[in-house]
Structures are given as C-alpha cells and as structure tokens.
Amino acid sequence: MAFVEKLRRILLIGTLSFAIICFAALVATILLQVVSRYIFASPPGWTEEAGRYLMIWCGLIGAAAAYADRADPVLIYLNITPGSCRGKLSAVLELAAVAALTVPLCYYSPSLLQYMMRIPSDTIGIPMGLIIAVVPLSAGLILTQSILRLLIVWYAAPRES
C-alpha cells in the first residue's frame, strides 16, 4: 500500500503545482491588464479573456487538488479508522458518488471537445476545446484520487484501539 499512497501523493503534488502555475499566470495576466489600463490607458484586449480562461483552469484544477488533499467542503466528516468495516463502506460510497458524477462527464466529453476544437475564442483565437478540456481533466483527477483512496482504505491493516 505504500506504493499507492506514494502514487496518490505524487498526483496531489502535481495537481497542486499545476494549480499554482495557473494561479500565478492568472495574477500576472490581471496585473498586466490593470497596469496597462490605469497607467497606459490602453489595455491589451487579450488579457481579459486570458484571465477568464485561466480562472476556469485554476478553479477546476484547484478543486481536484482540494479533493485529493481532503480540503474540500463536506457535509459530514467521519473519523474513519483505515481498514475498518466503516472505513471501507465509506470509501466505497464515496467512490460510487464520485463515479456517478465523473464517469458520464468523462465518457461524453470527447465528442464535445471535438466539436469545440473547431470554435475559436473571441479575442485570442485559440480553440475553445482547449479551454473546456479542464472539465474532464479535473473530473478524471478526482475519480483517480477516489479510487486510490479506496485502495488505501480497503487494504490498510486495521489499527488497534
């Protein structure tokens, strides 16, 4: 199980790093827009659109990172002992809920992405498919983390109380 935990940790660090890069690019883009608007009175037209798209990427990748690190908001927090029957049931139910939302999203995304790759964005001109590709990507990351959580909980040795 050490391998699965290490894999989960590497995936979390990669997701967090990518979210931080997106956030840094978002801050730099918006800072450029503010400086050019109020100092030079001539902001580049692409900065607003790029900021919007970076916010989408940052938010969805950040949500996947928050889920992976258990920093996401939950309705009920259960203190579960790894390897216990209650822990296994909780992990199975969590995976079932995550799969019910993410599997259809990932299944139907390729046709939508294929269609959206033909539509350019208004100002920048990049294919809109590149913008919305973050939706199935973040769903896949969340599903993967949920599967890894299940494996860790399922195969963990029960702790003595």
Concise summary:
The chain is built from five helices and no strands.
Q: Helicity range of the residues?
A: over 70%
Whole-angstrom Rg: 20 Å
Biggest sheet architecture: none
Overall shape? elongated
Low-confidence parts = none
How many domains make up the 3D coordinates? 1
What oligomeric arrangement do these chains adopt?
A: single chain
Properties at a glance:
161 residues, mainly alpha
Question: Could you describe the 3D structure shown?
Answer:
By secondary structure, the protein is mainly α. The protein has one domain (2-155). Helix content is 74%, strand content 0%. The chain has 5 helices and no strands. It has helices at 2-38, 46-68, 85-116, 128-132, 134-155. It is elongated and about 65 Å long. The two termini are 21 Å apart. The relative contact order is 0.16.
Q: What is the element layout, followed by pairings?
A:
Layout: H1 2-38, H2 46-68, H3 85-116, H4 128-132, H5 134-155
